[in-house]
Amino acid sequence: MCEASRLYLKIQEEENKKSISGKHRGNTSRHINSPAEHFLSLQRTIGNRAVQRLIDSGAMHANLMVSGTKDIHGQKAAGVRHALEQQMDKSEDGMTPSPPCECACRRNMDDERMPPHETGNKARKEGVAVPERPAEAGWWSGNWYTTDNTIICDGSGSLKIHEATSYGHGVQECTRKHEGQHRTDWYARYGANICKGRKEGDLPHYDPPGKGKYEDFLKKSECAAWKVGEKCRKEKLKSCANQACKNYVQPHVTFAEQMVKKYC
Question: Do residues 31 and 101 lie in contact, with contact meaning Cβ atoms separated by under 8 Å?
Answer without folding.
Answer: no
